[in-house]
């Protein structure tokens, strides 16, 4: 499993190389990786009968963070969607973006996203999952902003990254808190202690943090607005990210955490309300849109809301319906997006009122779009029908509000039927207008992927036995934590569920024929959109930018003295707050060595030099006085048997004095850079800070110290590195990499200083 994830990242890195291998074959090469991974994950289907399979790789075991990967019904379903639909998208893009100068970059980002999604859904460790979670946000940012020359694409990419990045930060807090409460970051270890977690006083915080992360990723209200903006991406990106994979990452997280945090009113009621509001709000929005991708965007948000709603309902049939709807929605929505891309590619427009009669020009594309639309509507013999029946049954099973919730769900499905028909049937029905008379039939590379998805939708809907026990039941068991099984079948007899299904179909078809969307209707109906979450987000972003400018101008003012004052003042506040709790210092004066005459003299020299540096008005005297302080430190090191530190200090102080003197000649002459009030202020800050640090240092000496590391170095310095000077061995052997980096930094600084010394900064002479 880790090899599958790793291959995706390697493939992403080597896409430019693959392109150079041969312009005629490189598209097929790109498509082979996801196809091979799809076949690999298909081979895992028989293993689901033996229960979840976990493979572990140690990473940071001391913190409980490992690269543990888990295959169960839920993770395998997502892995198959990621690689299966990914294969079709890779194949489709070879013609859709044919001749694009940045095609290799496109495939690189797409491969990176695929690998990140696989890592996310396969991870059994929350921390590892979070890393892949953030990688999906980063790679999707590049994909959404692929057409970066357009301002709208850049804005959409930044908005998506801002929303999902904020959610990721909140999710990280939830992961850390859950790991502390549950004692592990492993999904497998957290499920058995779910009762302990739910009885914890931190449970509400954990639920809230996880839900914010999931809601931002899966575009739930009020974080939904980034997804329609993300439609600025090329259509293959919209197909892959915003119908089948990325936007379902939040759904995956909620489904995965249901056995741990679910079956609790706080969890279920929150999901119920947020999902219910999102699905109805977005479905209503889709009725007023005239752009095909916009219609699909809002219908996707609504479908994600349905999934959250079903997880909130929480009955076994509702959870089964959620698992089935994940598959059904991915198949028909990916097909509709691909069909939309073909229409846009061949006609140059996505405006629904302008499209008609294209079925005569592209009949195979029309078949794919029609099948996807019928599955979206929930017509019999399609997979969408099975999922609709099961979800209705699951909602009605709630005795407290089942009928009301079912009515809201039915109304949502009616609206989505209309949206699906507008996207999958309307462009192909009717008479071909004169403006589209020159449209040609698309390449087979374009129509094969949506036709395959349509065929799969029909096959799985008409013959559910092929996915029932092998895939859907394991998905249900992974979400619910139950071992119960349900049999999927087309006919359940005449009952309330069938009646509600027929009402949905009848009302939806009637509304499709009588409703004509337009921008005017949208403006009249959604007048409150001026205060929508998107507007509030943009206003908040502008406010934050203004605050950032004021903050930066105040602190980053170009005065080094002010920087030091700010840093020291903050440290004084922190240490002062720490010392408010009391000071625990018990000095054993008998253990202090006697003070020699030389130490008294050196201390006096240091004190006098500090006084001169603070009080003198001469820059030269101040620099020399500071140099004396440094050289006195060298003598202290010598007295305490540290000649290597003494030589280091001597070199640094000598270089510092020389550099200060060189800089001194560059400063404006006779310019007063300080005053007595400034000196008094700086003196007070220095004394207070020095006193606090001295107190903390004495407290550290009183605290018991851990000597394991020191003992290890002392015992192994000669045995492993053949050196008797432990400090030197640490620097050049045990911490050799750090030393090399520090040496490189010093060399770079020396080169910079030398360059400045050689540079003539006289503006008149240069002019």
From TrEMBL:
Source organism superkingdom: Bacteria
All copies of domain NADH:quinone oxidoreductase/Mrp antiporter transmembrane, residue ranges: 123-408
InterPro entries the record matches: CPA3_Na-H_Antiporter_A, MrpA_C/MbhD, MrpA_C/MbhE, ND/Mrp_TM, Proton_antipo_N
Pfam families: MbhD (PF13244), MbhE (PF20501), Proton_antipo_M (PF00361), Proton_antipo_N (PF00662)
Keyword Transmembrane in record: yes
Bilayer-spanning residue ranges: 29-50, 71-93, 113-146, 158-183, 203-227, 239-258, 270-288, 295-313, 319-343, 364-383, 403-423, 444-467, 490-515, 559-580, 592-615, 622-640, 646-664, 684-701, 739-757
Membrane topology: Multi-pass membrane protein
Keyword Ion transport: yes
Keywords assigned by UniProt, alphabetized: Antiport, Cell membrane, Ion transport, Membrane, Transmembrane, Transmembrane helix, Transport
Subcellular location: Cell membrane; Membrane
Domain NADH-Ubiquinone oxidoreductase (complex I) chain 5 N-terminal, chain residue ranges per copy: 59-107
Domain MrpA C-terminal/MbhE span(s) in chain numbering: 679-758
Principal place of residence: membrane
Record-annotated MrpA C-terminal/MbhD domain positions: 604-669
PANTHER family (alphabetical): NA(+)/H(+) ANTIPORTER SUBUNIT (PTHR43373), NA(+)_H(+) ANTIPORTER SUBUNIT A (PTHR43373:SF1)
Protein name: Monovalent cation/H+ antiporter subunit A
Organism: Mariniradius sediminis
């Amino acid at each position: 499993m880790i090899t599958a994830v790793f291959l995706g990242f390697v493939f992403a890195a080597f896409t430019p190389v693959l392109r150079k291998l041969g312009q005629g074959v490189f598209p097929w090469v790109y498509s082979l990786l996801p196809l091979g991974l799809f076949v690999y994950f298909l081979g895992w289907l028989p293993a689901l009968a033996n229960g979840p399979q976990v493979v572990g790789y140690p990473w940071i075991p001391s913190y409980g963070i490992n690269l543990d990967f888990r295959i169960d019904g839920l993770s395998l379903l997502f892995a198959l969607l990621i690689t299966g639909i990914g294969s079709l998208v890779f194949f489709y893009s070879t013609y859709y973006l044919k001749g694009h100068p940045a095609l290799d970059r496109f495939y690189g980002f797409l491969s990176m996203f695929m690998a990140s999604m696989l890592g996310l859904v396969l991870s059994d460790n929350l921390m590892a999952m979070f890393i892949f979670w953030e990688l999906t946000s980063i790679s999707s940012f590049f994909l959404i902003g692929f057409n970066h020359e357009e301002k709208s694409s850049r804005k959409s990419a930044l908005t998506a990254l801002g929303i999902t990045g904020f959610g990721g930060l909140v999710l990280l807090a939830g992961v850390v808190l859950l790991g502390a409460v549950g004692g592990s970051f492993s999904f497998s270890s957290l499920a058995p202690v779910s009762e302990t977690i739910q009885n914890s006083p931190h449970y509400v915080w954990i639920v809230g943090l996880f839900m914010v992360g999931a809601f931002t990723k899966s575009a739930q209200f009020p974080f939904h607005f980034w997804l329609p903006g993300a439609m600025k991406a090329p259509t293959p990106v919209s197909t892959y990210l915003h119908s089948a994979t990325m936007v379902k990452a939040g759904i995956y997280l909620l489904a995965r955490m249901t056995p741990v945090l679910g079956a609790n009113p706080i969890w279920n009621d929150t999901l119920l309300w947020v999902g219910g509001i999102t699905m109805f709000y977005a479905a209503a929005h889709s009725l007023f849109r005239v752009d095909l991708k916009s219609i699909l965007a809002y219908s996707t948000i609504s479908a994600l809301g349905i999934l959250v709603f079903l997880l909130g309902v929480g009955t076994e049939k509702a959870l089964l319906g959620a698992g089935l709807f994940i598959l059904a929605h991915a198949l028909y929505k990916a097909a509709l997006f691909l069909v939309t891309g073909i229409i846009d590619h061949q006609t140059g427009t996505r405006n629904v009122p302008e499209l008609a009669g294209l079925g005569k020009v592209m009949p195979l594309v029309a078949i794919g779009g029609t099948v996807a639309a019928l599955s979206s509507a929930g017509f019999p013999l399609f997979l969408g029908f099975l999922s609709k029946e099961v979800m209705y049954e699951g909602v009605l099973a709630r005795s407290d509000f089942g009928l009301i919730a079912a009515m809201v769900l039915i109304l949502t499905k009616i609206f989505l039927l209309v949206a699906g028909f507008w996207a999958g049937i309307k462009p192909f029905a009717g008479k071909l207008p004169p403006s589209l008379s020159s449209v040609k039939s698309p390449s087979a590379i374009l129509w094969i992927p949506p036709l395959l998805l349509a065929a799969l939708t029909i096959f799985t809907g008409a013959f559910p036995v092929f996915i029932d026990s092998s895939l859907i039941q394991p998905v249900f068991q992974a979400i619910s934590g139950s071992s119960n099984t349900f049999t999927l079948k087309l006919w359940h007899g005449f009952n309330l569920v069938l009646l509600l299904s027929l009402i949905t179909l009848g009302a939806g078809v009637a509304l499709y024929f009588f409703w004509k969307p337009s921008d005017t209707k949208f403006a009249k109906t959604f007048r409150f959109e001026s205060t929508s979450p998107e507007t509030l987000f943009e206003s908040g972003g502008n406010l934050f930018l203004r605050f950032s400018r004021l903050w930066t101008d105040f602190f980053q003012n170009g005065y080094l003295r002010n920087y030091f004052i700010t840093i020291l003042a903050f440290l004084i506040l922190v240490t002062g707050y720490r010392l408010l709790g009391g000071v625990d210092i018990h000095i054993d004066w008998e253990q202090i060595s006697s003070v020699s005459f030389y130490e008294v003299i050196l201390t006096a020299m240091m004190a006098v030099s500090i006084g001169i540096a603070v009080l003198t008005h001469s820059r030269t005297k101040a620099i020399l006085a500071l140099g004396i302080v440094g050289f006195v430190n060298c003598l202290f090191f010598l007295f305490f048997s540290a000649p290597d530190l003494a030589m280091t200090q001597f070199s640094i102080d000598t270089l510092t004095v020389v550099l200060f003197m060189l800089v001194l000649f560059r400063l404006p002459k006779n310019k007063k850079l300080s005053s007595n009030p400034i000196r008094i202020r700086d003196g007070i800050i220095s004394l207070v800070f020095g006193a606090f640090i001295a107190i903390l240092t004495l407290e550290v000496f009183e605290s018991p110290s851990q000597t394991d590391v020191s003992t290890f170095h002392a015992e192994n310095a000669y045995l492993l590195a053949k050196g008797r000077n432990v400090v030197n061995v640490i620097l050049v052997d045990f911490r050799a990499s750090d030393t090399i980096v520090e040496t490189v930094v010093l060399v770079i600084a020396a080169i910079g200083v030398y360059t400045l010394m050689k540079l003539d900064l006289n503006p008149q002479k240069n002019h």
